[in-house]
Amino acid sequence: MNRTKSGNLTFTILSISLLTVMAGAAMAPALGVIRGHFAEQSGLTVQLIVSLPALFIIIANFFFPALCRLMKTRTMAVLGLCMYIAFGAGAFFARDILTVLAMRALLGVSVGMIMPLSTGLLAYYFPPEEQARLMGLSAFMNQTGGVIATFLSGFLCAFGWNFSFLVYLLGVIALVLVVAFLPNDRLAAGKRRGRSAASLLRFAPSVTGMFLLMILFFIFPTNFAITSLSNGSLTPDGITLIMVGLDVVAAAVGLVFGRMMKSFPRAMKYMAPVGFTLGFMCFSAGTELFWLLAGSVLIGLANGVGVPYLNTVASVKGGKDAAAAVMPLLSAAMFLGQFVSPLIVSSCARLFTGVTAPYKVGVVIGIVFIVQAFCSRKYQSVSV
């Protein structure tokens, strides 16, 4: 593969990473405005706008190996991206909460089709020694998508509660690139062995780590706008800027992730658990701007390191089989964590008092994540 062709392919695959984070988190800045429009609905129902796509991403991930046997990569990517655009932006036309949630569910199906491709194709087309750099770039694109989507969503919601859904029209860019540059290869041949019990056990630490990481991260987008508005600590514009800033921090980490892995690989597995724990400690300390900024920076660092680290471990161990066998498992764990996060946190928050109760739950789960990382240290390390 010549350099130009390789560059086009890399950018095409990375363009899909630009979109996947937008399934839920893009709506976070608009959640307060949407809740105001649907004032008769419970807070948990409105939070499903952020978390419901995750459930259907999980369902789609379980069928991903079968889809690989039925369709080639470009065909599946085009179908998934068309659905992404139609059902993501289609919620703009909804007039009731049930229609919005139905659109969000179908959006989840589309992301379940393209999410494993966004990381798995990097493992399929590029050698192991490039995985840390590429997974860092994938995380950078993912977080850049979060920056763009969060900013646009916060800006668009000023025109009306439903305008934020128009951010999903960004999927047109990836669709054009996929049609132009993505080969139409078949990934399923010989991949059934990736589902063996021994293989699944080998990747269990990474899958568990991704599940805990996403529970922790989604405490932020599902609570930050609502708690900050309710206690008057920030304006809607301030909330949007801090959320964008968090994604900027995570994106910056993605750019240097490959060098971090080479410099201190043994310490990398602890950076995300410790960062999340300290970040939620800052949020729990008070509602002053200093604590909000410090907590956001730490959570951005944790997310920026944690996702590419776990993807790198899985992709190196999975090799060319990663796209069809391993990445759907990580994707399912990622979005299962997103889906159950508000359910777990809203239930456990009753054990604490004050507006910072969800963040105190985050501290507890962060400590569990630290313990999990330590106990699985022999299985969660790779040479890059």
What report would you give on this structure?
It is a single chain. With 384 residues, this protein is an all-alpha fold. The chain has one domain (3-375): Growth Hormone, Chain: A. The protein contains 16 helices and no strands. Helix 6 crosses helix 15 and helix 7 (131-156) crosses helix 14. The longest helix has 30 residues, at 289-318.
Round the Cα radius of gyration to an integer and report it: 19 Å
Per CATH, the class reads: Mainly Alpha
Number of helices: 16
Q: What fraction of the residues are assigned to beta strands by DSSP?
A: under 5%
Q: Mean of residue pLDDT?
A: 84
Number of strands: 0
Helix-and-strand structural type: mainly alpha
Can you summarize this structure?
The chain is mostly helical and 384 residues long. 76% of the residues lie in helices and 0% in strands.
List the helices and strands and how they pair.
Layout: H1 3-20, H2 31-37, H3 43-62, H4 64-70, H5 73-90, H6 97-125, H7 131-156, H8 171-181, H9 197-202, H10 204-217, H11 219-230, H12 236-263, H13 265-285, H14 289-318, H15 322-348, H16 357-375
